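Okay, is this right?
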Amino acid sequence: MKESEAKQILKSFVEPYRDASSSIIPETIIGWRFGNTGDDVICDWTGIICDDDATIIGLDLEDGVWIEFLLGYTTPMAQSYTNKQQPHRELLDEKDDAPIPSSNGPFLPSSLGKLTSLQIIKLSSNQIQGTIPKEITKLPNLEIFEVRSNNLSGTFPHLYSEKIQVFDISKNRFSGTLPEDLFAHPSFGPGTASYLQSLIKFDVSHNLLSGTIPLNGKSATYYTAKKHEMALQNLKFFDIGFNSFSGTIPNNFGTLESLTELFLEHNKLIGTIPKSLYRGSGIGSNPLPLKQLYLQQNDLSGTLPSGLSQLLNLKELYVDGNKLTGDIPDVLCRKELNNAFLNDTKAALRCDGISCPANSKSNEGVAPCMLCPDDGGFNRYLGRHGNECKQPMNEVEILDLFFERFHGEDWLDPSYAWERGSAVCQRKGVGCDQAGNAVNITLSGLGLRGSLPTELGALTSLQVFNVSNNYITGFLPSDFRFANITHFDVSGNSLSGHVPILLCIKDGINNNGIGPPDVDFELLYSCDNIVCSRGSYSSIGRASVADSITCLPCFDDFSMYLGRNECTDFQIFGHQIRRDDALAKVKKAIPYIAILGTLSFFILKRLRRKTYLVHFDSSELSSTRNLALRQFSSNSFDEFEDDAEEYYSDDDWTAAASEGDTHKLGFSRKKSEMIVLRGLS
């Protein structure tokens, strides 16, 4: 590409926002003064990287060079994330120095896609807004793509380059989900990343992304025609923190043999900490070389595995703000983790540096911690956040919270209105045992709105919980595992996410784990026994081994919710069809169907009205009469028509009919029958 052409492309970075020949550019900036005589060689320009052949291979205008020095913007950037929003991140300077983006910056020019030789794009902290143009995503030689700390939006950008090593779109406003097949084999789907073998850093943190982490199934496994390879084997840095990802932590992280930094904090992840993080998986099954593991502020449950001590390189481990129970294993405490962050050097030996113990208070869930008065196990989780000791709640207070959380004053049946502070057993929809403890809460179809309080798990005597067919949203708390529930029905609501693992293995709930000895173990202990997972349904919103009810696939507009008890799809020859899609296609086809029907009508009408008149000599009357009678009795028009053509061709038929000869035979085709219209004389 000629230098003049390259300058014209780079001109699009400044021309829409200032005069291209403006003198606002500081003297310390080389180039970018379009139109000025004696302008510097483009490879000498600030932020331009060229190879030995003077070909532009890089654009480095990060840290505000574009917005401040090239455009002269003086608008102050938005306030940076506070420590409360970014706990334990002080050490990661490169991740913390950039602010939240504002909304008055420039847009990425699509013309940048014409510089096909580009290998490096570094435009972080420039208040860039809008989406990433497709022309840029299709650059074939990109190796480094860093646009963090801007105001970019849209869905996850799919880059086509097979050479990407650094992919950083953190601290923007990207939304939606990561493609399910992002890290899968290329034949698995169109969303597969092209850079599976080259990627070193993947950072999408501090966005608005949701869905699950696409590392399940065939993800991270790469098959070729000649051999079996593992993808992402060069990946060292993986950060999806500060989003809304849900689901469990994928076991396939254990296949990433080069992974040293893993940041999953501040999401909505559930389940337990997988063993594959410290055992590895696949061939060799060596522990990962992890140095930093951030899992704080999720909904992880279970206990903290002592096996994490096998991570010999581990320096930082944060698990606070989850639903982990038990104690911090001593073998982890002896590793003196998080020392660089802690002011109290003795905290690591007390295990406080990893997480504060249960029933304690702390600003960030780690040291310094202060124990609270014994509450009988109400505050059972490790590393809870907050500066005050949380007081235990009795059943009256929990039900008051329930009524408030679900907007009880708006329930469809006013007779269910609970008076605040009233006795548990006096509340309609609540059943009690002889001791006055709530054992049954049944509030189906009353229009409940809100999310399920985690405090319901403290109702340890509760056996029946039925809030089906309401408008409940949010996630299913794992806290229900602490209650003695045998019948659990949350079907027909709008619950998101996944069923907590510790509920899936809880005995007795909806007969989970109970059944004949010949039943598959995976059916006896199944999350579907609690509630049908996303993308499935049954008539009762869950599976039942005793009633031979299973959760069937469903992909209608409500398939993202748990516990569906109906499906608006239908099946044709065993294939599921979305009702809305089918109706849309039928609606689209109506004009074509109408045109085809009209044409068919006129064609059939013309065939029925077509009449043939054939003239015969009187000398042949006898033989012709016999021929007509024979054909009429055999109801075969085609054979008679062939014989008639021996007398007259098509062109002569009309002439014969107009001669007025009394020796005429008329017949027409109607529903494959021959009808004599005029007899022989």
